[in-house]
Automatic annotation (TrEMBL):
<dbReference type="InterPro" id="IPR005111">
    <property type="entry name" value="MoeA_C_domain_IV"/>
</dbReference>
<feature type="domain" description="MoaB/Mog">
    <location>
        <begin position="170"/>
        <end position="307"/>
    </location>
</feature>
<keyword id="KW-0479">Metal-binding</keyword>
<comment type="function">
    <text>Catalyzes the insertion of molybdate into adenylated molybdopterin with the concomitant release of AMP.</text>
</comment>
<dbReference type="Pfam" id="PF00994">
    <property type="entry name" value="MoCF_biosynth"/>
</dbReference>
<dbReference type="Pfam" id="PF03453">
    <property type="entry name" value="MoeA_N"/>
</dbReference>
<dbReference type="InterPro" id="IPR036135">
    <property type="entry name" value="MoeA_linker/N_sf"/>
</dbReference>
<keyword id="KW-0808">Transferase</keyword>
<keyword id="KW-0500">Molybdenum</keyword>
<dbReference type="InterPro" id="IPR036688">
    <property type="entry name" value="MoeA_C_domain_IV_sf"/>
</dbReference>
<dbReference type="InterPro" id="IPR001453">
    <property type="entry name" value="MoaB/Mog_dom"/>
</dbReference>
<protein>
    <recommendedName>
        <fullName>Molybdopterin molybdenumtransferase</fullName>
        <ecNumber>2.10.1.1</ecNumber>
    </recommendedName>
</protein>
<keyword id="KW-0501">Molybdenum cofactor biosynthesis</keyword>
<dbReference type="InterPro" id="IPR005110">
    <property type="entry name" value="MoeA_linker/N"/>
</dbReference>
<dbReference type="Pfam" id="PF03454">
    <property type="entry name" value="MoeA_C"/>
</dbReference>
<keyword id="KW-0460">Magnesium</keyword>
<dbReference type="InterPro" id="IPR036425">
    <property type="entry name" value="MoaB/Mog-like_dom_sf"/>
</dbReference>
Length: 392
């Protein structure tokens, strides 16, 4: 059995070069730029007024000035500057050449065409040309595009961007006991939940899930399932990963030429995880126990889907104080489902008494996975421990 860290390195190495596509920016929220966006204009394109008021000269602040024209946003003043003059100006208008300051109208007394400035302190109220960005500037965030990014791209006059393609992830659940949600299970059957969980999890990471029909526990049915995954960027199988007579995923994958990166890791839950490459397509084989499938999905599938879009996983281990005593750990790194509560300095983490990897109700209540290394000695309440947040 290899360690979680080694397994993650193997899984991430399955991601090929990022595939890209061109899309209009109104579709780009949440997508990841595959190439830097390049500003096609300078912003502001001219020295722009930041206030409604009068364009004046700093050297003439203390004298009466004659208003000789008007500059509004979209309608520049076209006359020339004159001594002892001012131009009525509005926010967003180009400051006419020959004027170096805008006095806001609240600080001006006007009588006909004559103004006097009543308050001469303060800034020049001019946004210089290029203050925001210049033509040729690059915008290349290594994260999902936000609302502000969309606005910036529009302002940069970039209508179309090159983004990482959403990986298409084929999800193949297998098991004779499984029926789809909404069906009445016959004796011995249960409702399949893992495929929906993994679909939600990959969608959260930016992929497009394709849930395949549930495979039966036969070699033929699994072959059909694998064939149905053709064309996907990633295949995730669920179940049939262990050592039982009906656990056939590994066998069928190897018949199809799986170049196996690893099988079995020193992790709890999730020991029978497998990963490799089927031709050009990465494959991750998740264990069937519902909590194991989700925990492995969070730890391996989500980072792989992010890497396929050129993104690093942002989930980091954080520190908490243990709410109760814990016995020593075995030989696998343990991810315990736990709740978090606020406390004076660090959050207080409380693992559930049951860590059964079939209990989805506890998984759904968990705020975090408390991470205990293999061989961790007994811990006392108040000890510092590491956790992986599951929310936010
Ligand atoms: N002799 C051993 N038995 C088992 C071992 C072992 O090392 N030696 N490992 C156990 C561990 S750990 C796990 S995890 C499971 C994983 O087994 P499989 O990946 O082969 O999963 P299945 O046998 O197909 O299913 C396990 C369990 O999960 C339920 N399941 C499966 N798919 C779904 C689904 N899509 N939705 C909801 N529930 C699902 C299935 O009904 C079983 O109850 O093996 C242990 N055994
Ligand atoms: O590793 Mo299994 O995934 O413990 O339930």
């Amino acid at each position: 059995m290899i360690s979680v860290e080694e397994a993650l390195a193997h899984v991430l190495s399955l991601a090929g070069p990022v595939a890209s596509e061109q899309i209009p920016i109104d579709q780009a929220l949440g997508r990841v730029l595959a190439e830097p966006a390049v500003a096609r204009i300078t912003q502001p394109p001219f020295n722009a007024s930041a206030m409604d008021g009068y364009a004046v000269r700093t050297t003439e602040l203390h004298q009466a000035l004659t208003v000789i024209g008007e500059a509004a946003a979209g309608r520049p003043f076209t006359g020339g500057a004159k001594p002892a003059s001012a131009v009525r100006i509005f926010t967003g208008a180009p400051v006419p050449p020959g004027y170096d300051r805008v006095v806001m109208q609240e600080n001006v007394a006007r009588d006909g065409d004559l103004i006097t400035i009543t308050e001469t302190t303060g800034g020049d109220n001019i946004r210089p040309a290029g203050d925001d960005f210049r033509i040729g500037d690059h915008h290349a965030p290594t994260r999902r595009l936000s609302t502000a990014d969309i606005a910036l791209l529009a302002a940069m006059n970039v209508p179309v961007v090159s983004v990482a393609k959403r990986p298409r992830v084929a999800i193949l659940a297998g098991g004779d006991e499984l029926v789809g949600p909404g069906t009445t299970p016959a004796p011995g059957q249960i409702v399949s939940s893992n495929d929906l969980a993994i679909a939600a999890l990959v969608r959260e990471a930016g992929a497009e899930p394709v849930i395949l029909p549930i495979a039966r526990d036969t070699v033929e049915s699994l072959h059909q399932g694998f064939a149905a995954a053709a064309g996907a960027d990633l295949l995730v199988t669920i179940g049939g990963a262990s050592v039982g007579d009906h656990d056939l995923v590994g066998r069928v994958a190897s018949e199809l030429g799986l170049q196996q990166a690893f099988y079995k890791i020193a992790m709890r839950p999730g020991k029978p995880l497998m990963a490799g490459r089927l031709g050009a397509t990465p494959m991750v084989g998740l264990p069937g126990n519902p909590v194991s499938a989700i925990v492995c999905g969070v730890l391996f599938v989500q980072p792989l889907v992010l890497a396929m879009q050129g993104l690093a996983s942002r989930k980091r281990l954080l520190k908490a104080r243990l709410a109760l005593d814990l016995p020593p750990e075995g030989n696998r790194q343990h991810y315990l489902r736990a709740t978090l509560a606020e406390s004076d300095d660090l959050p207080l983490i409380r693992p559930f008494a049951s860590q059964d990897s079939a209990r989805l109700s506890l998984m759904a209540q968990a705020d975090a996975l408390l991470v205990r290394p293999a061989g961790d000695p007994a811990r006392r309440a108040g000890d510092l421990v590491s956790f992986l947040p599951l929310r936010g």
